[in-house]
Each structure stands twice: as C-alpha cells, then as structure tokens.
TrEMBL record, chains A, B:
Pathway assigned in UniProt: Amino-acid biosynthesis; L-tyrosine biosynthesis; (4-hydroxyphenyl)pyruvate from prephenate (NAD(+) route): step 1/1
Signal peptide (UniProt feature, chain positions): none
Protein's name according to its UniProt entry: prephenate dehydrogenase
Domain Prephenate/arogenate dehydrogenase as annotated: residue spans: 6-295
PROSITE patterns: PDH_ADH
UniProt KW keywords: Amino-acid biosynthesis, Aromatic amino acid biosynthesis, NAD, Oxidoreductase, Tyrosine biosynthesis
Catalytic activity: prephenate + NAD(+) = 3-(4-hydroxyphenyl)pyruvate + CO2 + NADH
One Pfam family hit: PDH_C
GO MF term (any one): NAD+ binding
Record family assignment: Belongs to the prephenate/arogenate dehydrogenase family.
Keyword Nucleotide-binding: no
InterPro entries: 6-PGluconate_DH-like_C_sf, NAD(P)-bd_dom_sf, PDH_C, PDH_N, Preph/Arog_dehydrog, Prephen_DH
Length: 306, 306
C-alpha cells in the first residue's frame, strides 16, 4: 500500500485517533502525521509513546498545511473544534471526522468548513471499552466497516481518496445517508450500550444482592454487559444527546418486545419463548459468517483465562 | 489431585456434562464415568469422541452402582429424570444437578430422592453459547464459581465430597440458600440473557434496517448481544419459566431505570447520563480484579480476528 495523503492532522488523540496513526504508519499511508489534544497530559503521553510524527501545542499548528484533517473528539465537541481550526484549513484539503453520530456532526461542523475545502464525514465501526492515547493499536480497523456519509454534491475524488485511506488501514468501506446511519447505529450500538449501562446500574443498586456477589458470579452472562458499560462516559453521553430521536425510537421498540416476553414468562407461554430464542440464533450465525465475530466459545477467552 | 468418587454417572451429555467429564479425567477424579443421554444420536456422538468411559442405553444402567449421579439436563426435565432413576440409586450415593435454577430443581427432584441417598443441588457459573456433547472442554470451570445449595440437614460429609470434586475440576465453591441463588442469578444471568434476546429480536424485526446491515455493522456493540442470544432455546425457556418471580422482579427494576435514562435523554440531562455511566465502570473494574474476565480490549478478540 502506498501513500494516500501527504500531511494528515489528528485533532483529538484518543482510542480512534491513536489507532489511525498506528494503522497509517503500518503501511505508510501518510508522509507526516501531526497530532493535537487539548490537554498537556495527553500531548505529553503522545510524545512519550511516539504517537504521531509531531505533536503540536495548538490545533491551528497541527492543521496548518494538512491535506487531511481528522476530528476525533467526542461528538458534542466537534462544532467548537471545527470553528477553531476553520481559518487554518488549506484550500483543497479534506476535513473528516470519526464521530459515532452523523446528522449532528454534519450540522455542527458543516457550516464552519470554508469553500474550497471538502467535508467527508465518516465513522469507523470499531472500538473497544478502553480510551485515551495509549489504548490504540494498528489492527483495530482490520476487516471492520467504516461508513462514509458525504453530503450531496461532495467531490467524488475527495471521497475516493478518503476511502483509499480507510481501506489502507484495513477497513471495509460503505457509503450511506446520515439519517440512515444514525438509525442503523441506534440499533447496532447506541441502544445496546444504553441497555448494558442500565443493567449494570440495576445490579449495582439492588440492596438484596451485594456488589461482591454480582462481581464474583458475573461469568454467567453479566460480565459481557460490564465490558460495554465500561466505555467512556463523555463519549456516550454525547452520543445519546445527539442521536436522541433514533435511540428513543429503538428503545421504545425494545421495551414493547420486552413486555411481550415478560408476559410470556408470567403466563407460562413456553412456546412463545422457545420460538423467539430460536429466531435470534440466525443473526448470530450471520455475524460469524460475515467475519464480524469469532465462533470460539465466549469469544475465545474461555480457554485463555487466568 | 486424587480420586474423589468411585463411579460417577452423567445423565444428560451436553456442554456441562461433557466439560465435567474432561475436567474429571484431567486429574483422575473418578474411577469410572458412565454416561446417558435420551437420544441415540447424542449417545453415538459421545461414543465416537470418547466421552465417558462407558455410554449406556438407559439411565437406569448408567446410574447402577454410581457413587455420584449428576443430572445435567434442562431444568424443566429434572423432575422426570429423577423419577426415572430413583429406584436404581445405591444407598449412600449422592445426587446432584447442574441446573441454572435451584428452588425449582429442589422441589422437582427432592421428593424422588430415596432415604439414605444424599441430595446436594449445585450450579456451575460457567458456560458458553455452544451446546451438545461436542462443545465441552476441561477448562470450562477453571477459576469460575460453582454454587452448592444443600437443603437444611444435608450430611456435611456429602457436601464436602462434592465440593472436593468441583475444586478438583478447577472451580471455586460457595454455598448459598436456594432462593438467594435464584435472585443473584436473575441479576447476573437470567435478566441479561432475556435482555440480549430481546435486543437481537428487535434488530431482526425492524423494517427500516435490514438484517444484512445489522450483521455487517454488529462490531459496534451489538455482536456481544448476539453471542448471548445464541444460547440454547430449550435451556433458556426452562430457566425463565422456573425462575419466574425473581426474573420478573429484576426486569421490573430494569425497566424503571431504563425509563429514567430515556427521560434524561429526552430532556437533555447530560449530567445524569454522565454520572450513571461513570458509576457502572467500577463494577467492571471489580470483575477484572476478581479474575472473572480479561482486561484485554474486546475480550482479547480484537487482535486475533480474521
Ligand atoms: N471508542 C469507540 O469505541 C469509538 C468507535 C467509533 C467512533 N468513536 C468516536 O470517535 C471519537 C473519539 O472517540 P475516542 O474513543 O477516540 O475518544 P477518547 O479515547 O476518549 O479520546 C477523546 C479525545 O478527545 C479529546 N476531547 C475530549 N473532550 C473534548 C472537548 N470537549 N474538546 C476538545 N477535545 C476533547 C480528548 O482530549 P484530552 O485527552 O486532551 O482531554 C481526547 O484527545 C468520538 O466522537 C466517538 O464517538 C468512538
Ligand atoms: N449452557 C450453560 O451455559 C449452562 C451453565 C450452567 C448450567 N447450565 C445448566 O446445565 C444443564 C444442562 O445444560 P447444557 O448446556 O449442558 O445443555 P445441552 O448442551 O443443551 O445438553 C442438554 C442435554 O440434556 C438432554 N435433554 C434435553 N431435553 C431433555 C429432556 N426433556 N429430557 C431428558 N433429557 C433432555 C439432551 O439430550 P439429547 O442431546 O439426547 O437430546 C442433552 O444430553 C441445564 O439445566 C442448564 O440450565 C447450563
């Protein structure tokens, strides 16, 4: 894989940005990568671990002369960051982002992007429960989908180039409309995260079952929820506040179905339960066949545990 | 580890029973292990893969002369199986089970256990989404808790011996009252499973988001739910029907909390969301410190994927 961009600027140096740096370096996709994060602490850590070719003290400095600028901060902060860097953007450059919600980012960032600069919003569907500059790794995007949601009229060449970058980082790339993206993600990510947070909160709240019991006996299913519910609180607060409508719609559907299953339990309708539980297995098979998860029991951790 | 029982009979030859066999064989915990499953197909598979020292054509034959009889069938089938084997039980033998619900098993099995035979119900808190005789492995119970729930007045020597067997199979062992067990498991296992089944069902049902999209983009969180929702439908139907009260109580609490979080999203109360999401992280830390899960991002599968 050869170079796709000259200079790339990463604004925000957390899990996603640091993974992008290591993935770009793996196959030399950019000539130089500059980085900026708002806190001195994160910038110092980045310098110490060799994250980016150059860490800058201001966003303006990082962006100057960049061919691609990647906004990798929480969704709620995208607008302010875009306003800050807008004056420094080079004509012909591309601005993208990696935010988990797309309609909101388009509305918050779009107006700041000057004429002559391309804006191609994106979202890599890959992540872990860890965050910060030290959590990134080059393989994060391998075989995972990245969705690009370019507004109508975007220069096709700018889209193609960004696509080439993501493919170079190992990702599969699809294009999609922003509203559809936000609905699909409400199903595959936002609602599941809220549900996991809720279940872990309930366990923590119960008087009659202690936290010690919840922790010791978590291997019976609960621990998968605790992993999801350990994700960054700021990132997720912003996701729910900015993808409100789609998330609430899916949660409404979820509550309806949950009530139907609760009724089946209450009335002893084993047939309904059995049918429902049989139907959901097909989706799992699909996920495995599509290469989006491992078929090893317990994600393979079963045999590797301490 | 030396021998704990002479002859052990496994009734039911699925994930749990087959894992017990491999775990017992690993350190020679029993002199001979006999096995029985209701279907010829499962018995043939067991014979083919060398599961058990001897596969029997009837439960009666498997149980004859056994020092320990393990009931490893779905919770709803425990009573019938106990009635069938009761006449063959050797005086001084111990009957145990591995069912995921304990009050129901005690009520269904207890009355069939003859005088002079010990009854020590148990539940290993370890499993995977796979089932059947070929899904077992010796390490399944390593460092996982097994809960014993002996009825009052049970012979302490019989309890100690069963505890020694589980410890020999790698497990940590606790004793607990049956009702408390059923409440704790409703929190750590039964409610999470129902919630995961529900969320996967919702995804499958939506008209505006296709199954293909749900599958391709599952890595954003949803795929963890699909794993849980791929568990055996019969086993889980039985769990919900026989642990009805505790499951419904926890689901009621869950729904209350979910409504509160939905309200926070609707009213834009970011502070409430951020606080809630911060609190749930402590539980995850506890799970990892207790050695009940790995701290590797994405359960370690992130770097090992295809
Ligand atoms: N984590 C995932 O699973 C995942 C997956 C796909 C997409 N995303 C999206 O990717 C973006 C970054 O997520 P991440 O996981 O990489 O985050 P992260 O590891 O938590 O890092 C966040 C970065 O944003 C900066 N930041 C936080 N609040 C800010 C603010 N108010 N103004 C300016 N900068 C701020 C942080 O700076 P300091 O460290 O200097 O405070 C840090 O550099 C988010 O939009 C998220 O929705 C995340
Ligand atoms: N899977 C878990 O994660 C897990 C964890 C802890 C405890 N448990 C408990 O362990 C027990 C066994 O679960 P498993 O996962 O090992 O099951 P499994 O792999 O699905 O195997 C079930 C076994 O039970 C037999 N069986 C099914 N229905 C029966 C019936 N109506 N009458 C008699 N035998 C019947 C099957 O026989 P055929 O194959 O011949 O049909 C098979 O031998 C259940 O009580 C479950 O609650 C499961």
């Amino acid at each position: 894989m050869s170079q796709v961009y000259g200079r790339v600027a990463l604004i925000g140096l957390g899990l996603i940005a640091s993974s992008m740096f290591w993935a770009m370096r793996r196959t030399g996709l950019a000539t130089e990568v500059t980085g900026y994060s708002r806190s001195q602490e994160t910038r110092d850590t980045a310098t110490r671990i060799g994250l980016c070719d150059r860490i800058c003290d201001t966003a303006a400095e990082a962006v100057e002369g960049a061919d691609l600028v990647v906004l990798a901060v929480p969704v709620g902060a995208m607008g302010d960051v875009a306003a800050e860097i807008a004056p420094m953007l080079k004509p012909g450059a591309t601005v993208t982002d990696v935010g988990s919600v797309k309609r909101h980012v388009i509305e918050a960032v779009g107006p700041h992007v000057p004429d002559g600069v391309h804006f191609v919003p994106g979202h890599p569907l890959a992540g872990t429960e860890h965050s910060g500059p030290e959590s990134g790794f080059a393989e994060l995007f391998d075989n995972r989908w990245t969705l690009l949601v370019p507004p109508e009229g975007t220069d096709p060449a700018a889209i193609d180039r960004l696509r080439a970058l993501w493919e170079g980082m190992g990702a599969l790339v699809d294009e999609m409309d922003a509203d559809h993206h936000d609905l699909v993600l409400a199903v595959t990510s936002h609602a599941p995260h809220l549900i996991a947070y809720t279940m872990v909160g309930v366990a923590d709240d119960l008087r009659r079952v202690t936290d010690t019991e919840v922790i010791k006996y978590s291997a019976a299913g609960f621990r998968d929820f605790t992993r999801i519910a350990a994700s960054d609180p700021t990132m997720w607060r912003d996701v729910f506040l900015t993808n409100k409508d789609a998330t609430l719609e899916i949660l409404g559907r979820f509550t309806e179905e949950l009530f139907a299953l609760q009724r089946a339990i209450r009335t002893g309708d084993g047939g309904h339960l059995h049918d429902y539980f049989t139907r959901t297995r097909a989706i799992r098979r699909g996920v495995i066949e599509a290469g989006q998860d491992t078929d090893a029991p317990d994600f393979g951790r079963g045999r590797a545990k301490t």
